């Protein structure tokens, strides 16, 4: 098994890192970009659209999840090569036995807030409704929980090429391998 989970809070650089790994010829996916994999569900598990500006009440009763069937399909497709799942879902730790390793893109609050405010950022989670405040409340606990589960931390406040190099050094893969 050579699948690695690269997780972190919104603004940590998961999507950007996925694109950088792909640019280097390494199999990676920005999990948020795959609508069959990642989506919001309500308390009954029904798939729902996120409102334009979710408030705390909506965020408390909805979860961003990954489809187990779609995840297995992706893992099977990439079973013979190092493959990086770059993203986060509320159920991503349900699949820990599928990963050869888990990496946490760790950032401080000020870096997170600066990145969330970037007008060129493709994902608006953290910039609309109560999502920014929710992330401020959640960041430290999430990072602590992932480290407690054994995730290897990577300082995601570094320049992108250094983050990619640090990640690849952990698993002894060179670009294009």
What does this structure look like?
Strands 2-6-1-7-8 form a five-stranded parallel beta sheet, sandwiched between helices. It has a three-stranded antiparallel beta sheet with strand order 4-3-5. The chain has helices at residues 14-23, 56-60, 68-77, 109-116, 131-148, 160-171; strands at 3-7, 27-30, 38-41, 47-48, 63-66, 83-86, 101-106, 152-155. The model has no long low-confidence stretch (mean pLDDT 94). It is of the alpha/beta class. 36% of the residues lie in helices and 19% in strands. The chain is built from six helices and eight strands, in the order βαβββαβαββααβα. The radius of gyration is 16 Å and the shape is globular.
Placed side by side, the strands forming the largest sheet appear as 2-6-1-7-8
Could you say which structural class the secondary elements and strand pairing correspond to? alpha/beta
Characterize the biggest β-sheet. Answer: 5 strands, parallel
Task: Tell me the strand percentage band.
Answer: 15-25%
- Poorly predicted ranges: none
User: Mean pLDDT across all residues, rounded?
Assistant: 94
Our Rg estimate from Cα atoms comes to: 16 Å
* Oligomeric state: single chain
What is the terminal separation in angstroms? 16 Å
> Which shape, going by the Cα principal axes?
globular
- H and E string: EHEEEHEHEEHHEH
Count the strands?
A: 8
- Total DSSP helices: 6
**In which range does the helix fraction lie?**
25-40%
């Amino acid at each position: 098994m050579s699948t690695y989970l690269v997780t972190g809070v919104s603004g940590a650089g998961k999507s950007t890192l996925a694109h950088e790994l792909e640019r280097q010829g390494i199999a990676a996916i920005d999990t948020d970009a795959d609508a069959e994999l990642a989506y919001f569900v309500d308390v009954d598990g029904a798939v729902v659209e996120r409102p334009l500006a979710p408030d705390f009440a909506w965020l408390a009763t909805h979860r961003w999840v990954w489809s187990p069937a779609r995840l297995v399909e992706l893992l099977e497709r990439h079973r013979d090569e190092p493959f990086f799942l770059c993203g986060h879902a509320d159920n991503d730790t349900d699949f820990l036995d599928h990963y050869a390793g888990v990496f946490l893109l760790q950032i401080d609050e000020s870096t997170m807030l600066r990145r969330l405010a970037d007008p060129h950022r493709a994902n608006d989670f953290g910039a609309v409704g109560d999502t920014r405040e929710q992330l401020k409340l959640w960041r430290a606990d999430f990072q602590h929980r992932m480290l407690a589960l054994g995730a290897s931390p990577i300082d995601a406040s570094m320049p992108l090429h250094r983050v990619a190099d640090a990640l690849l050094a952990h698993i002894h893969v060179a670009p294009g391998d």
